Amino acid sequence: MKPFVVAGGDAAGLSAASKCKRAAPDREVIVFEKGEWVSYAHCGTPYYVKGEVDGLTDLVSLSPADVAERGIDLRRGHEVTDVTEGSVTVVGPDGEFEQPYGDLLLATGAHAVQGPFDGLDRRGAFTLHGLPDAAAMRAFVDPDFDPATADIGPMDPERLRPLADAPVPETAAIVGGGYVGVELAEALSARGIEVHLFQRNEQLLPPFGAAIGDAVRAELNSEGVVVHTDTAVDSIAGGDRVERVEHADGTLDAEMAVVGVGIRPNTGLAEDAGATLGDSGAVAVDRYGRTDVEGVYAAGDCAEARHTVTGEPTWVPLGLTANRAGRAIGATVGGEPTPVGDVAGTAVVKAFEVSAGRAGFVGDESARAAGFEPVTETITAGSRSGYYPGAAETTVTLTADCGTGRVLGGSVVGTDRAAKRIDTLATALDAGHTVAELERLDLAYAPPFSPVWDPILVAAKVLAGRLE
Ligand SMILES: Cc1cc2nc3c(=O)[nH]c(=O)nc-3n(C[C@H](O)[C@H](O)[C@H](O)COP(=O)(O)OP(=O)(O)OC[C@H]3O[C@@H](n4cnc5c(N)ncnc54)[C@H](O)[C@@H]3O)c2cc1C
Questions:
Q1: 234: how many CB neighbours lie within 10 A of its CB?
Q2: Which domain, by its residues, includes 160?
Q3: Tell me, what CATH number does 387's domain have?
Q4: Is residue 39 lining ligand 1, measured as CB closer than 6 Å?
Q5: What is the mean pLDDT of each run of 10 residues along the chain (468 residues)?
Q6: Cα–Cα distances in Å, from 337 out to 20, 284, 340?
Q7: How far apart are CA 147 and CA 128, in angstroms?
Q8: Domain identity same for 199 and 281
Q9: Ligand 1 centroid – CA 109 distance (Å)
Q10: What's the per-residue H, E or C state across 72-94?
Q11: pLDDT of residue 428
Q12: Phi/psi of residue 246, each to 5°?
């Protein structure tokens, strides 16, 4: 049997390769990764910049030796450049070659949108997508960073030297109020840098809804981050280094600029293969992660998935989605057909002491656009029994469909372990619960953890009243 070939050696790609090897130990599995790093956690990079994570290699889950031990033929520094029927073209250190495949997984991830900006080539301008970006940013903001001794894995210390030798910035502009922008606002602030966060529209974290956007904005302000909403940045200006950003309301002098205005899926190989892209721009796949080209799968940030609530294709580029789809495809290719699973867009984020989660549809607008007749309630309840130390207000927004009573989604925000409460809601969405069913859930109670009525149950009770 021809090998299972994987393009991309991170979350989706290595999950698939590992699972296939376990399910079918005799199958040859080859992973091509164009970069130096494999099996790394993008998600930890803001905390590495902050300094909460010490070394860059702490963000690596499996070393190349661990991968080899699983029987996977891992080739770093190898870029898949083309896909034809039954074969991929690969460019590696020894030149270009053809690699036949029996099954092919495209797990090529996404890339950071550079924005409509000039100036990203100036010293002090960054995007954050991958460990080399994280190392560059850390070198620039950490006065104690010495490339010669820092834990930077296979990276060349000399590449980081100019950034490490430059003066630590006093002021940073972050362009984009999504979760990466918010996490970096905390990280750079913690390093004593004056942070200005620019968001083009009126709300931070748009997919998380207004309650979370407002709470996070208040928290950032109270921690000294200057939040500029409704303020588009036009350019990152200066000479060979960043000196200022020009924005809709004027100019900010800053020695650092971070652009976090979103990502786009890497779909070039899928298009070469002749696979169809969905409306989102990511690769269209079926329940098993198959594209419409025989033997070609796609998973992770480059692929769509099915929405838990609507059953329609959607694009939610997140970590579990990638790991889970990769693992399922590995099982399928290894002879155990396994669906990749649906996604509700379940996501969590923190800004200093505030943490927040969202799942499904948050608020009426997006639910109505998807064809529902939504009704939404927002409540505030205690996070623990009122008499127990540490209790804090938790705000829950819950949306349901008027006609069926089905829960469509919601959000949770607060300062006392609020974010992970969203998992109750994600579970209810997956089960297709109505508000009445959510209200009846047997959730755990003891004073240090929760009031008798968990805030999610309080929200369900209030929303049920509206639906009657
Ligand atoms: C700063 C940041 C913070 C994040 N935080 C969170 C979080 O808190 N929670 C969460 O759920 N998600 C988070 N994410 C998203 C999460 O990291 C991604 O959803 C996940 O890594 C996607 O995995 P993937 O395997 O699809 O893509 P990637 O992890 O991007 O891996 C794709 C790999 O493919 C390689 N590649 C690309 N093209 C080729 C080619 N032609 N040939 C060979 N190799 C190729 C790339 O070099 C890369 O290593 C975060 C992302 C970022 C950038």
A1: 13
A2: 125-261
A3: 3.50.50.60
A4: no
A5: 98 98 98 98 98 98 98 98 97 98 98 87 97 98 98 96 98 97 98 98 96 98 98 95 96 98 97 98 98 98 98 98 98 98 98 98 95 97 97 98 97 98 98 98 98 98 95
A6: 11, 19, 10
A7: 19
A8: no
A9: 5
A10: CEEEECCEEEEEECCEEEEEECC
A11: 98
A12: -105, 130
Atom of ligand 1 nearest to the CA of 303: 26
Query: How many domains in the chain?
Result: 3
Cα 231 to middle of ligand 1, angstroms: 29
- Give the integer Cα–Cα distance in Å for 253 and 242: 9
CA distance linking residue 281 with residue 270, whole number of Å: 11
Pocket test for ligand 1, best of 61, 88, 104, 108 (most atoms within 8 A of CB): 108
Chain-centroid distance of CA 140 in Å reads 24
Of the three residues 305, 333, 361, the one that is the final residue of a domain is 333
Rounded CA-CA distance 51/144 in Å is 11
Kindly report the CA angle at 174 between 168 and 175, in degrees rounded to 5? 145
Is position 311 within any domain?
yes
Q: Is 94 in the same domain as 172?
A: no
**Taking CA 16 as the corner, what is the angle to CA 303 and CA 2, rounded to the nearest 5 degrees?**
105
Does the pTM surpass 0.90? The reply is: yes
Test site for ligand 1: of 111, 271, 301, most ligand atoms within 8 A of the Cβ: 301
pLDDT of residue 354: 98
The reported pLDDT for the residue numbered 116 is 77
In whole angstroms, what is the distance from residue 152 CA to residue 218 CA?
Answer: 35
- Quote the ligand 1 centre to 10 CA distance (angstroms): 7
In a domain, 347, yes or no: no
Q: What's the pLDDT at 458?
A: 98
The rounded distance, in Å, linking the Cα atoms of 228 and 185 is 12
One domain, residues 298 and 373: no
Residues 133 and 247 occupy one common structural domain: yes
Taking only Cα atoms into account, the Rg of the chain, rounded to an integer number of angstroms, comes to: 23
